[in-house]
Amino acid sequence: MAKRLPEKILIVDDEPDIAQILKLHLEEFDYATNWAADGESALKQLQSNEHDLVLLDVRMPGISGVEVLQRLRVSDLDTPVIMMTAHGNESLVVECMKAGAADYVAKPFDIDDLMIRMKRALENQRTMKQKKILEQEKEDFIFMLSHDMKNPITAVIGSIDIMREGRLGVVNPDQVEYLESAIESCEEVVTMIDNLLDMQRFESGRMQSRISPVDPCALLEAAVRHFSAAAERENITLTLYTQARGPEIAVDSAILARVFANLIGNALKFVPDGGTITLSCDGIERSKLSKAEIQAATDSSSDFSGVTSFVRISVSDNGTGISSDDLANIFERYVQSDNASRRIRGGAGLGLAFCKKAVESFGGCIWAENNEVEGSQFTILLPGHIGNIT
């Protein structure tokens, strides 16, 4: 087994005697050391990112230790830093800790205390590095697995579609119905994979959106057309109510279309035979928002200050509804309603989480509530588009 290389410590202090004493002590504990006499020299040495820890004096001529620390954090160098400060500089210590220092040690320092603080900072850094490696491996695995699953499922959909269209021989109406059901089931799996991938992209900041002015009514009409056959087979009435001409919204049309697909698809799972799903879209002025709508906007992470007009979109059904316990966390990842056990088709609990991330990325909010009599309603509030998209 190869011997692990000694951890490298950069000592940054303008007093050579103190730096030399530190160097001798650290080398006794099998650390490798370098010395920088000022902040500029320290920043140059740290650009190589070869150091495992920095012992940084707070007060130095030229660039202070605090400024060195701030520059390190701005440049995304995550090397842990322990500040060295004289007694009586507690306010500076607080400033350093806020700026991202791992710890501090007072001069004149006790070498045993310093070793304890160094070991703790280095151990924390090793843990953080291992966590980042595991997170990256998890992300790579999800993307690889999702890609390897999605490709064959897409091929299956294509093959079934060829049979359904009768290109391989005559099929009777019953066979067509079964083939269409198989295609829908495969498309559900593809949707779950897409939700999983996009949740990862949202959380890692890698989600790419192409924002442009969009007519929300046109998107809803397309969604209704897509689900009309499935609703008819389930004997469910799917209805859309829209204004003749509502305001546009600034969104990525493909992503918002998937939000609508998730909401309608969920409703189809919970609505009983002979039930109804109603979609609506209208423009509304800020002054006419209800208390519930104002509260939902206030609770969201989006900033609605300065927004005077909104587009309100709702998907309502007369299904089983949502329990009061589930309403509080229905948009969390992998959370499904208790009513999930009563439906024929399952899910991964990612659809609504994706909807929330997507809607908030467009500066809007989404919430769920139960209807007065039966069923539930999901409402989306998005700022009306005014001006140019940048």
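The record above closes out task 2.4. Task 2.5 opens with a second protein, given below.
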Amino acid sequence: MKTSRSEQLFEKAKSYFPGGVNSPVRAFRSVGGTPRFIAKGKGSRIWDADGNEFIDYCCSWGPLILGHAPNAVVDAVCTAVAEGSSFGAPTAKENELAELILSNNPFIERIRFVSSGTEAVMSAIRLARGYTGKNKILKFEGCYHGHVDSLLVKAGSGLVTFGNTSSAGIPEAFVNETIVVSLDNETAVEEAFAEFGQDIACVIIEPVPANNGLLLQRAEFMHFLRNICNEYKSLLLFDEVISGFRVGFTGAAGYYQIQPDIITYGKIIGGGLPVGAYGGRKEIMSCISPEGNVYQAGTLSGNPVAMSAGIAQLTACLRSNFYQELEQKCSTLCDAVNEHARKKAYAFKMHQIGSIFWIAFSNAEHIRTAEAIDPNSMSFFRTMYHALLERGIYMGPSGYEVGFVSEAHTTEDLQTTIVAMCEALDLAHQ
């Protein structure tokens, strides 16, 4: 496989950007080698700067549920941008996308568009504090909520602990307002509420934790969170930047049939363009300025080009059996590779929910916590990753990241991928 052009671009990029990238995981640090500079994408395929072709399961980290450059989205974007790319004023497209979402998602009554998932979470946390009058938030080890200061924390020792910062530049005072506990642990949550419950504004969780493995949670645990939040008059905040409109149109809230107080969404609602949103009950959302006293603003919030792309994409997602067909595609891939691993007696399992999958080098039927992931298993992933690249399969360059199947992936794509994955898996175990 030719890589000279990507290598040249990466060397040049190092003189422009920290680490040569504009987002850390792109640097291939965890798998080694040179990141592929992508030149174009169409359908299930991407092509890099050297002309190499890949079947893509990164899908821009999830939002490209229709695949790359679907005609409906491209046409909508071209029409919108020809009429003006930004106004800093309301447009009818904002109303249209909001109505499309709210009329098909009973778990939110009002919505506010922003420009990223991180911005959505940051704003939702401020709203939770403003609505409740409380200061602390409770989060879970293994859940990622963007680069928000108070959420870039990790657990220390003990069952319940205040977090330690996992990034320089975050004041200790910010971190002290964040309580971190392990996933899948009712006792830890109960102890946290027993000690701090009167000042916990919200519990924030990825209901489908998919940024540190695919840590699928028990339904009983999720309902427990809803009940304890009710008991202490704290808000339950679902971070559905990945799971929203991906595991189903109503996301994990619909999957678990749980009513959160606030939900955050990401770029899937913008057809891959920079968009985020947060929504919730009318009573809570009315606290946001200019209606209420919780301030949040953004010049590019509700950008008409992004709104147009989102309308086109989410309209397609509402087609009959759309999500069932996506889930079946993902099952076809996972089941075939898992069967190969079973026959070879490999410590390996592809975990799945909807059209999201995760490769784990473990025989565990369920992996529900970050602590249960063996860091030594990442050496197997590195070998497998580069073997997949050589076979024309592209995924996110980290064994902790998940993969995504899109509507554009064909039966032939899946069969090609199955063969490639089985061969790569064999190489990883040599």
